[in-house]
From TrEMBL:
It comes from Schistosoma mansoni. InterPro entries: INSIG_fam (IPR025929). One of its GO terms (biological process) is SREBP-SCAP complex retention in endoplasmic reticulum. The gene is INSIG. One of its GO terms (cellular component) is SREBP-SCAP-Insig complex. The keyword Transmembrane helix applies. The lineage of its organism: Eukaryota, Metazoa, Spiralia, Lophotrochozoa, Platyhelminthes. Belongs to the INSIG family. It is a multi-pass membrane protein. It comes from the Eukaryota. This is INSIG protein. Keywords: Cholesterol metabolism, Endoplasmic reticulum, Lipid metabolism, Membrane, Steroid metabolism, Sterol metabolism, Transmembrane, Transmembrane helix.
Amino acid sequence: MITLFVYMGIKPYKIFIVRFTASHTQKSADPKVVVNRAMVLLLQTTKFSVLVYRGLLLFFLGICFCWASEALHNIRGEFTASKISFYTETAAKFWISFCCGVASVTVGLLSPCVDSKLGAYDAYNKEWSSVLRCSALFFGFSHATARIDFATYSQLSLTAIGLSIALWWVFDRSLVGFVFGMAVALIATFIFQSFVWKQLYRFSHPMMAAWLPCLFFSGGVVIVLVGRQLAKPDVMALMQRKVK
């Protein structure tokens, strides 16, 4: 995670350097004490604390999206472990939730940086109400694909593609959101398909592979919108006041 912060251009702060240098003059022999002291002083830096808060919110949001989607799609069984045991099922759910959280943090923190590099400041005109409506539509889309029985594979695929593109067009319409959504869809679908190929998981219904990329694409668009809202100056100023 720290490597991601450095990649995003988060430079060391003078306050942190001065405080850590002053505290390090005590020459503590225990490296654990030095590391703990450095982390405490780093968290005291306001901008870094705001970044940590944003990362934590995005991480838990990704986990909540994963759990909600899993609960909705359990109507059709979702994924079932090929070797049924409590350990493998629990470990698989944990790692899937963790990966969704990490992906949410990555997308939510990188998308505002890409927007600033490209000068796409018009993307920040959205309000929280628009983000909430987009999230509600995402869960509605997820619930509909789980409950409705489609006649053919192509019908389900076209419906899922149309709904996911409509969600992006109505609430985002930005190139950054589309690219991040496509990247999330391709990477996540490849990972899940590799699990199926290695017989770690199997689809309980063959049509699940049709809406899976569209579901990941829609989730990526929602996370991009949330990441932009958290990166807005007024939200960051509110977080800074709470940190202080």
